[in-house]
Amino acid sequence: MKTNRAVRTPGGLSVRLDVRALTVVVLLLVTALTASVVLIGTGDFPIPAADVLRTLVGEGDAGQEFIVTELRLPRVLVGLLVGASLGLGGALFQSISRNPLGSPDVLGLGQGATAGALTMIVLFSGTANQVTLGALVGGLVTGFAIYALAWKRGVHGYRLVLVGIGVSAIVTAVNGYLLTKSDIVDAARAVVWMTGSLDGRDWDQVWPLLALCAVLVPLVLANSRELRMMEMGDDVSYALGVRVERVRLLLMLSAVLLTASATAAAGPVGFVALTAPQLARRLTRSPGPNLTPAMVMGATLLVTADWVSQRAFGADQLPVGVVTGVLGGGYLLWLLVTERRAGRI
Amino acid sequence: MLVESPPEQRAETAPAPPNRRAVRVLGLLVSVLILVLVAVASIAVGAKELSLEQVWHGLFEESGTYGDVVVADRLSRTVLGVLVGAALGLAGTVLQALTRNPLADPGLLGINAGASAAVVSAITFFGVTSLSGYVWFAFCGAAAVGALVWFLGGSRGATPVRLALAGTAISAALYGYLQAIMILDDAALGRMRFWTVGSLATGDDSTIEQVLPFLLAGFVLALALARPLNAMAMGDDTARALGANLNRTRALSMLAATVLCGAATAACGPIMFVGLMVPHVVRSFTGPDLRWILPYAAILSPVLLLGADVLGRIVARPAELQVGIVTALLGGPVFIYLVRRRRTAQL
Questions:
Q1: Exposure pattern of A5-16 as b/e (b: 16+ CB <10 Å)?
Q2: Peptide bond before B318: cis, by omega within 30 degrees of 0?
Q3: pLDDT, tens digit, for every residue of B52-63?
Q4: How confident is the model at residue A295 (pLDDT cuts 50, 70, 90)?
Q5: E-assigned strands of A81-217?
Q6: What number is the average pLDDT over the span B174-202?
Q7: Which parts of the chain span the membrane according to its record (chain B) (predicted)?
Q8: Which of chain B's residues have a Cβ under 8 Å away from the Cβ of A172?
Q9: Which of A109, A175, B235, B306 has the fewest CB atoms within 10 Å around its CB?
Q10: Does B190 touch chain A (CB under 8 A)?
Q11: B24-37 pLDDT, tens per residue?
């Protein structure tokens, strides 16, 4: 089956449509929304899906309306936005480092954000907002440090990955130190934060994240052509008229911002950034960065994982990060085996 | 310390003249001296400062004062540091030679993480509490991850990047697993958050005797591997032509690294980067001959580990920084320097 189709307008404009990728994106969106509705209905006070939908369009009764719009909807929205940001950030990193493992999990961005958050929790006993701010700053500083240290007449993919691994080790040590310095109450709070959880998220987390995505997602997608060319190598892209370092800096900055803010909102939810782009690529079977499918896939994964963690262990017993960590870890091993056989890592 | 020995780029081409050997032996003696000095510092420095006289009394003629107790306590910690440091240094050297990879390190390749995950599982699920019980789990974890990383990294065709990535990825997965355990089990969190950063202060005097047999076996095996690993450094074909049994050497090297890392991790928790840094420093003045690198690494790695331990006690006085944190803070920049120094074509 031909999966690419060119659409031409009478005015002479044309656009190439990847039918398969488009189908995948639509199907994933439907899955994500379905999972969201089911997730809103799940909890100590179960609500049938039909009631959830009715409440969402503003026709439910008062009790359900409170539960849905004040308690569960913001949590699900945070989940969707965090998943989308992580998926997009992961796709960008993997494309820039030209390595399926070059994701924020491995490069230490998550650990960097964790260090910021732990500093706030342990040293200042900070409020939730201060912790979020600390995580954001930590992630950004780590991202800049990695980029600056990997810079040597340009940023080469492998050097980026290896420097990221080194930075990650340093930051992990700092985190370990902060954890040993804390008393047991702070330590328990810190460990839950470090695993990544959507518990108790409300509208205060939704708006900043939504605003950031509204700016960054179009910006990134506008540069996806350049990114696709850069996967052919720096020299080829130069010849094709791409300003390689500039685009790379811009996209890395966006990826760091997306990852850091997602981490600030929900903690370093493990492996979503790593698995979402890989799964998306396998579904679309299309080369290139697959930015949009990765983004939608990330949102689907996170919401589904949150639902699994609530169904399997009871409401808010186990943070979502444990589910993504265990499932993602298993997937990672499988990925390592297959990618190795194909010689891509 | 060894500034008198010139940079030796020619060492591998010309056979070593006699005076070079004398310099190396002398260097070895100087290294031992440095190790003794650092060990004394490790006994003297801490929350309670001791004079050299008190250290002397505590070690050789009991004066019956409070100082004796402190010395006894710090002595076991220092001895443990020497043993574990030597183990990590030898393991790192063997791994770097085995994989022909300048960035190999037991921590970086995930071997320590494998041992940690196995130990934590043993404590949580099987109720194993004694070190001599869970050291076997540590061996299994270290061996499993070592084999997995070797396989995933591409076995013979392994490149530094592939190995480092495979190791880091597996570490990340195991780290997630450790975290899940710590969340589900508060008691485990209380114990494990200290152990998982890597510390010489185990608070248990029998630690040394429990891991000593394994460490000694590992030392002997690693030192005995110098010759076959030297042959392998010239490439598989040449090594085979020289009569080396490649598969046996590989298997024994993995065994040595596993035993050393497993025992070290079981005793002190995962400590990164000691095995990475020391071989590089040593190689810069001994040249590529493993028969010299291994003994030097065995003596200078404890210097680094004890030095880091002492440093951790000085900077965070009266509390202390765990040695695993200090080595990571020192070793991370060294690792990044090594990555930046090498031409990208080589990576």
A1: eeeeeeeeeeee
A2: yes
A3: 777 777 777 776
A4: very high
A5: none
A6: 74
A7: 25-47, 75-95, 107-128, 134-152, 164-184, 211-230, 251-273, 293-312, 319-339
A8: 328
A9: B235
A10: yes
A11: 888 899 999 999 99
Query: What pLDDT does B347 receive?
Result: 40
Does residue A328 belong to the interface with chain B, where contact is any CB pair within 8 Å? yes
* Over residues A140-162, mean pLDDT: 82
Let me know if domain B18-346 sits in CATH 3.40.50.10260.
no
Q: Which of B182, B200, B326, B336 would best serve as a mutation to test chain A binding (most A beta carbons within 10 A)?
A: B336
pLDDT in tens, B278-290: 888 888 888 888 8
Burial class of residue A129 (count of CB atoms within 10 Å of its CB; 0-12, 13-18, 19+): exposed
A285 touches chain B (CB under 8 A): no
pLDDT tens-place string over residues B167-183 = 887 887 887 788 777 77
Instruction: With beta carbons less than 8 A apart as the criterion, state whether A198 and A79 touch.
Output: yes
| Interface mutation vs chain A, best among B149, B193, B199, B200, most A CBs within 10 Å | B193
How many whole angstroms separate alpha carbon A301 and alpha carbon A321? 11
Residues 6+ apart with CB under 8 A from A293: A21, A24, A25, A28, A280, A281, A283, A284
Q: Which residues of A fall within a CB distance of 8 Å from B186?
A: 184, 188
- Bigger pLDDT: A21 vs A341: A21
DSSP per residue, B269-331: ----SHHHHHHHHHHHHH-S-HHHHHHHHHHHHHHHHHHHHHHHHHHTTTS---HHHHHHHHH
Q: Which two tokens stand for residue A284?
A: 């679309």
Whole-number pLDDT of residue B16:
53
Torsion sign over Cα A67, A71, A75, A78: positive
Whether residues B336 and A163 touch (CB distance < 8 A) is answered with yes
Residues in B touching A181 (Cβ below 8 Å)? 319
Residue A342: per-residue pLDDT: 67
CB contact B113 to A (< 8 Å): no
Residue B13 has a pLDDT of: 47
What are chain A's domains?
18-342 (1.10.3470.10)
DSSP B209-265: HHHHHHHHHHHHHHHHTHHHHHHHTT-HHHHHHTT--HHHHHHHHHHHHHHHHHHHH
Chain A within 8 Å of B152 (Cβ-Cβ)? Answer: yes
B10 versus A238: the higher-pLDDT residue is A238
Report which listed range, A260-264, B157-161, B181-185, is most confident: A260-264
- Contact list in B for residue A168 (CB cut-off 8 A) is 168
Rounded to an integer, the average pLDDT of B76-101 is: 90
Give residue B256's pLDDT.
Answer: 92
Cross-chain residue pair A322–B347, CB shorter than 8 Å? no
Taken as a whole, chain B contains a residue count of 347
Partners of residue A321 in chain B, C-beta under 8 Å: 176, 179
pTM for the model: 0.80
Q: How far is CA B137 from the centre of its chain?
A: 19
d(CA B325, CA B332) in angstroms, rounded, equals 10
Is residue B17 very low, low, confident or very high in pLDDT (cuts 50, 70, 90)?
A: low
Q: How many CB atoms are closer than 10 A to CB B75?
A: 16
DSSP string, A289-336: --HHHHHHHHHHHHHHHHHHHHHHH-TTTS-HHHHHHHHHHHHHHHHH
**Between β-strands A4-8 and A14-18, what pairing exists: parallel, antiparallel or unpaired?**
antiparallel
Work out the number of other CB atoms within 10 angstroms of the CB of residue B136.
16
> Token pair for residue B297?
């690494």
Instruction: Check CB contact under 8 Å for B322 and A176.
Output: yes
CB contact under 8 A, A169 and B322: no
Taking a C-beta distance cutoff of 8 angstroms, is the pair A249, A278 a contact?
no
Mind telling me how many Å the CA of B162 is from chain A's nearest CA? Answer: 6
Q: Return the domain boundaries, chain B.
A: 18-346
> In the structure encoding, which two tokens stand for residue B1, read together?
């310390």
Please tell me which residue, A338 or B114, carries the higher pLDDT value. Answer: B114
